[in-house]
Amino acid sequence: MFHSTRTQALCAGLSLFLFGAVDQAESQTLSSQSVRPTAQAAQLSTLPIIDGEVLGDSAWATVTPTSGFTQTRPNEGQPATQRTEVFVGYSEDTLYIAVMAYDDNPEAILVTDSRRDSPLDDTDSFRVIIDGLLDRQNGYVFGTNPSGMEFDAQVINEGGSGGFGGRGGGAGGFNLNWDTTWEVEAQITDQGWSAEFAIPFLALRYGSGDSQTWGINFQRNIRRNNEQSYWAPLDRNFNLNRVSEAGYIEGIEVPSQRLLQVTPYALSLSERGGQLTTSQSREEYGIDVKWGITPSLTLDATVNTDFAQVEVDDIQVNLDRFSLFFPEKRPFFLENAGQFAIGNPREVELFFSRRIGINRGTQFPIEAGARLTGKLGNSTNVGLLSMRTEGIDGVVPGNDFSVVRVNQELPNRSAIGMMFVERQGDGSINGNSAADFNRTYAIDGRWGIGDYTVFRGWLSQTETPGISGDDSAGGVSWTYADEDWNLNAGYSQVGDNFNPEVGFLARRNFRKYEAGWRYRYRPDNWGNLQELRPHMNYRGYWDFDGKQQTGYLHIDNHWEFNSGMEIHTGTNFTQEGVFEPFEIVDGVTVPVGDYEHQEAQLVFWSNQSAPFSVNFSSRLGGFFGGDRENLDSTIRYRVGEKFTSELTWSHSNISLPVTGGDFAVDIARFRATYAFSPRMTIQTLVQYNKRDDVLSTNLRFAWLQSANAGLYIVYNEVDENNLLFAPRENAQQFAIKYSRILNIFN
């Protein structure tokens, strides 16, 4: 009965999938692509005062603004409900952008957060993407809201990745953790709200030539209407990252770039408890250097690198037999991370920077490193990385890490590339430095057809002493995305001896097949309903003997309302083939078997822009021969744009037909932030794992000079003990770090 139900559902879904593919393949013309708007940049004779006042600043009086924004939601293709004017000017060293966001009801302007890089979707906001190299694939995003907060990000391959279009390494093609030095101020007036941006040319990458044309697009959000509008019109399936559909800004006269930034730091660190028998204190000093070799090629170097200011990882509990993924959070490795992404994001990543300087979640010293990234000519992307780490006696050898990445961009979002990754150890663990190495070789490609279709592929092999044969991996995928349909299919495989030691593997020895479809429907008169998104996704894993490891069929419909509230109603059919017993939690073993189950899934999001909001996700159904009741819930509360808080509780009640099989897993997480200003914040993150009785606390005070440099005061504490009423193992760390960016030529 179960096989019949799942087969019928899969056949019905694939029929719709194929129908959509045939029907939509006949049309590859983007309706919004007919005309790309063009604006003229003005050379400013008077520099603006960066205070957020636009109409009263004489510097903008002689600049002709551009306007004419078009909605993607709620009413696709219609003019924006409020007028927006954008002014663009420049001086000998800075690009200036001003926005006047008119609003006939200024009291209704919504401002929900003022922290640096906080999300701009649930607040009134304005963003710009700049494609200085005019390659129509990459760009930099700058944004703000009426509080004047700074939002900057890096877009590579229009926000996709080197893999199957997702986010590789926790960053991939859209890197919110990219930070640079710039300035923005905003204010609310009786005519709406306005903002002024001052972006040094040193923060951008651009080509040669005195007078240049760049790709550019602007986005305005009016949150009370759940409205998004763009200067260069886009179809609803795209967002600001769609660099190939951006407009143009002409007449920018750029200076010859002389970028040399030096960022020294000083750190004082005290630790006690945990595995330490006595308290320890130390001082550290280091330096980062950024050198702009050309306007499009940058060398970054670091000596005695430290990341004491980085937020701790979220606690996770593994209820399966495959590896958990923890995203990269260290700033040095996040810049241009998408350039090094090849593979299937969070499943097979050929380069994963957390393998450098982190062992089992604990950081250890990075002596020095350098990275060269950018563009040679108009279309050749290069990325070179070299890092040296100290060893840990008896645990990890001292290592030299090297990465070489070359990617040649081709017309219409296409590209071909290669990558080489190497770890060379000092032999302190295995006793033989000549055999202490690991290498990964890879090629990848992307082929864009028309406006909506992309094929991707990659192939890789590893080299490890003592391992030969069955050491390759690869994958191909196809995606089609227009304003109504999203279709995808893919195949990938990983050999049993494939061993990218500087990468990430969730599992080995598999063949994976995947396919899916999604349809977007916007009804005209269904009350407050904005969009329906019925969809189906399937992924299945088999080993090379034909035995199925995992199967997952997801059938769902998303109901999105005009307020931003969403309800997801789904059903999942799961299959797990367990070939060897594994311990799911301490003392509980899942035996060998073939487990097929069905589960119901319900997701609810309230209006996330409201001062009080909730969201939850629940799954009820079978699990490894028994039952699972899972609820992930989050409560958010904010006071204006200064104070934000979030309480998350993840609960799983599991009943398995084995000894000790009735157990619960609970993880609680509380995060609160108060922003004294957009550059001064205090944040707390408290996490609790009930089953393992682990309590983690992270307190951070940040006073930023610019980008991510400034003063950090950080306190970390981890309390853990599995014995009731026994003394807790209390590990404490207190750090004070100060860094400052020095522009040598400016």
Q: Helicity level, as a percent range? A: under 10%
Radius of gyration (CA) equals 26 Å
Number of continuous helical runs: 2
First-residue to last-residue Cα separation: 73 Å
How does this structure look, described?
This protein is mostly beta strands and 746 residues long. The chain has a 24-stranded antiparallel beta barrel. The relative contact order is 0.11. The termini are far apart.
Output the keywords:
single chain, 746 residues, mainly beta, 24-stranded antiparallel beta barrel, 9-stranded mixed β-sheet, 46 strands, 4% helix, disordered N terminus
In brief:
The protein is mainly beta. It has two helices and 46 strands. It has a 24-stranded antiparallel beta barrel. Strands 1, 3, 6, 7, 8, 9, 12, 13 and 14 form a nine-stranded mixed sheet that branches.
